[in-house]
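wait is this the right file?? whatever heres the structure
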């Protein structure tokens, strides 16, 4: 399940609901159940799940229990996107059957043609997705929309062809320089490169390559984690996106871990989920995987970052002491 949190936006009508969902997710959903949780009328959480896992017995009840445990005063809008109308309404009716009436703000089905209906046999509901007030607010907040989740994945796949060969040569050269350095200086170098990158961006591939290679040092990674705050997470998110997108996939493990963390803190649940899935499939021994599972399953809000940062850096210190021993 993917979860997003943004600055609260008030939903007034169905047009607002349908119009804002692609902005909250970052892409146009397909074969998905989207849940928007509101508290006192303001959006607090957006969660998306593929349809297939929800067909497992008990899956819907488990999902709802986790959401209400995190938002005990919340109410939910449930919007199902899919090509099979009968299956969609079967899932929505199962959701409704497991909700108290005061929990349900509304449930809707959006077909492949974009038509929105509020009941299996009802007439389509008009939904001016691109002109709703909520969609306009989302644009003002800088919430862009990609065509699909796959498009976001492609953006993080790393360079191909001649670009891959060029950055591979840069990585080889940079690795030699870093290997010759005193390991105790790597955290300082990480801090310096982050400061520079946040100020001026990563205009040259050498910067992305050096940051990626520095991530192999546990002490340098710890410095990168300590540099992330709730207030600057968006900047770090953009920086680590550039690093991941600019290096071959074989070098991406630790940059993906940092990108996933900054995605969670800045409220980009889709990129957080993509990073976790990439790590699961390509780097299954990543120490960050249990953290991502905890964040997703517990629907942990970004406001908990300071406590998690303290825990992550303490864990890193303990690991380094063990390695020295």
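ok assuming it is, sequence goes like this
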């Amino acid at each position: 399940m993917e979860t997003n949190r943004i600055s609260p936006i008030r939903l007034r009508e169905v047009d607002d609901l349908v119009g804002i969902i692609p902005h909250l997710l970052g892409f146009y959903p397909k074969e998905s159940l989207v849940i928007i949780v509101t508290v006192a009328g303001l959006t607090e959480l957006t969660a998306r799940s593929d349809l297939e896992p929800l067909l497992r017995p008990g899956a819907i009840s488990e999902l709802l229990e986790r959401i209400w445990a995190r938002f005990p005063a919340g109410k939910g809008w449930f919007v199902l996107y899919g090509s099979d109308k009968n299956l969609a309404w079967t899932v929505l009716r199962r959701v409704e059957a497991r909700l108290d009436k005061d929990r349900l703000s509304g449930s809707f089905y959006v077909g492949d043609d974009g038509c929105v209906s509020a009941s299996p046999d009802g007439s389509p509901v008009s939904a001016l997705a691109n002109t709703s007030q909520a969609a306009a607010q989302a644009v003002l907040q800088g919430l862009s929309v990609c065509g699909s989740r796959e498009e976001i994945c492609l953006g993080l796949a790393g360079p191909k062809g001649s670009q891959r060969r060029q950055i591979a040569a840069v990585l080889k050269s940079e690795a030699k320089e870093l290997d010759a350095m005193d390991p105790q200086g790597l955290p300082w170098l990480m801090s310096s490169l982050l400061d520079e990158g946040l100020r001026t961006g990563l205009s040259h591939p050498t910067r992305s390559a050096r940051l990626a290679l520095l991530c192999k040092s546990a002490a340098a990674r710890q410095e990168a984690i300590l540099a992330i705050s709730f207030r600057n997470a968006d900047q770090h998110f953009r920086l680590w996106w550039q690093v991941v997108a600019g290096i071959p996939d074989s070098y991406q493990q630790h940059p993906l871990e940092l990108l996933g963390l900054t995605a969670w803190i800045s409220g980009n649940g889709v990129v957080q989920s993509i990073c976790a899935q990439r790590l699961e499939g390509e780097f299954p021994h990543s120490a960050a995987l249990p953290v991502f599972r905890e964040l997703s399953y517990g629907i942990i809000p970004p406001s908990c970052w300071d406590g998690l940062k303290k825990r992550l850096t303490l864990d890193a210190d303990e690991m380094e002491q063990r390695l020295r021993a």
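The mean pLDDT is 85. so i think its the right one actually
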